[in-house]
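Lecture notes, part 5. Sequence design as translation. It can be helpful to think of inverse folding as translation between two languages: the language of shapes and the language of residues. The source text, in structure tokens, appears below.
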């Protein structure tokens, strides 16, 4: 088995995946709006040889639960939600190898501006930036940005395909290789090698010269997190890394297999994409210590916050349901895969609303691995063998304690088993991930 990839999974907010844990006396999440926390985290993640930090984001409040945002405001469920991009240059300044996968929705920003922002970040990080391409799933974001509601689920992917066609042309075709001269006589750049890109479709109209000269990677590493059929079709055409989530290997494994099949259908090798699975590790020096930590953490979980997140992800107002009611699949324009996680993805398991809220309370929709470093390393090996993933996006219960435990207790055990690198590879983020100095760009 190849060594795992590991990302830290975080968000510029007080509550990411474990609602209520900001109240814990050892947690620093309340410092999310100050740079010292993020600089400390960046140094910590690089000390642990993490491949990167995967920064989540949303553009609206979670207001499906009870039909308003009061629950999100009260619990801090991904609210406030500050801009993740502004963290990146600061974290890059105190690290040399850590990658940055930043979530940014293409639904509400022209490709011209998005291309400029990511090229700028690729320059400032010296080639360590990635873009988690999302289409957004909250009606609250659509209303805030001038629409009556979000586009229908599959329509969002039609728009996304057109958007990617436009933005990749800006990155690839506007500035030719060798266009930048920096020659005192001939000038800074050769005008004959810098081109205006024209794109006109039912969705977008653009006539633009890309404002940035070519960056170290040319374009950011493309991440994608949709596991619906349309999401996987999109990933097969565009993604280099795919983020999957699910509560059990029996849910995640078939999704990974379908993705690999989609890659082949799109003319790509089945292993041409790195797949990372959401997981949370609760670690102790002994199994008993880890179990005690989990029990302690659970005493701080905010049940309302869990239901608020769950309602936003699934697009269903769970305030209208009893906690003992079974969760049944309902077609919504929110997260299709999130709905399937707790309904028909695993026919052997029936979930009640209360079951889902309890599960979401620590680490969101992924598994929680509890034990000593050695035990969790073995659980991760088993999970990877059962699902076919290439690594993990590690969520946290306490910040930064969960990551400190992972680095001090888990990473050495993974390294002993040959499941984790002992040093960073050279090169850009794309080159580090794929081990090829000439790693391909996305078609």
């Amino acid at each position: 088995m190849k060594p795992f990839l590991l990302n830290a999974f975080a968000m510029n907010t007080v509550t990411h995946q474990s609602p209520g844990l900001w109240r814990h006396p050892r947690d620093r999440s309340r410092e999310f709006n100050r740079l010292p926390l993020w600089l400390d985290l960046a140094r910590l993640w690089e000390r642990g040889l993490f491949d990167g930090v995967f920064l989540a984001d949303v553009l609206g409040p979670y207001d499906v639960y009870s039909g308003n945002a009061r629950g999100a405001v009260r619990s801090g469920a991904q609210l406030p939600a500050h801009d993740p991009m502004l963290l990146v240059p600061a974290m890059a300044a105190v690290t040399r190898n850590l990658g940055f996968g930043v979530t940014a929705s293409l639904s509400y920003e022209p490709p011209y501006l998005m291309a400029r922002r990511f090229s700028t970040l690729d320059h400032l990080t010296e080639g360590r930036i990635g873009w988690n391409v999302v289409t957004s799933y909250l009606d609250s974001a659509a209303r805030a940005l001038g629409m009556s509601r979000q586009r229908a689920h599959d329509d969002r992917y039609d728009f996304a395909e057109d958007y990617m066609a436009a933005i990749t042309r800006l990155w690839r075709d506007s500035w030719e290789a060798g266009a930048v001269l920096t020659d005192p006589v001939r000038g800074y750049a050769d005008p004959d090698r810098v081109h205006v890109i024209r794109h006109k479709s039912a969705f977008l109209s653009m006539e633009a010269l890309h404002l940035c000269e070519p960056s170290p990677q040319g374009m950011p590493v493309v991440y994608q997190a949709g596991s619906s059929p349309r999401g996987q079709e999109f990933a097969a055409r565009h993604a280099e890394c795919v983020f999957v989530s699910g509560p059990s290997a029996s849910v995640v494994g078939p999704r990974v297999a379908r993705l690999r099949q989609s890659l082949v259908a799109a003319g790509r090798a089945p292993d041409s994409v790195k797949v990372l699975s959401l997981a949370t590790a609760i670690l102790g020096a002994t199994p008993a210590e880890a179990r005690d930590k989990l029990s302690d953490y659970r005493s701080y979980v905010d049940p309302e916050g869990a239901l608020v997140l769950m309602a936003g992800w699934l697009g269903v107002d769970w305030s209208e349901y009893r906690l003992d009611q079974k969760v049944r699949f309902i077609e919504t324009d929110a997260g299709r895969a999130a709905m399937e996680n707790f309904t028909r993805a695993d026919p052997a398991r029936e979930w009640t609303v209360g079951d889902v809220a309890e599960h979401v309370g620590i680490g969101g929709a992924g598994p929680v691995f509890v034990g000593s470093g050695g035990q969790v390393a073995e659980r991760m090996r088993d999970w990877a063998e059962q699902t076919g993933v290439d690594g993990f996006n590690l969520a946290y219960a306490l910040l930064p304690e969960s990551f400190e435990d992972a680095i001090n207790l888990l990473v050495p055990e993974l390294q002993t088993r040959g499941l984790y690198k002992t040093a960073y590879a050279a090169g850009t983020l794309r080159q580090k991930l794929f081990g090829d100095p000439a790693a391909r760009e996305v078609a």
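The translated text above is only one of many valid answers, since several sequences can fold into similar shapes. The chain has 15 helices and 13 strands.
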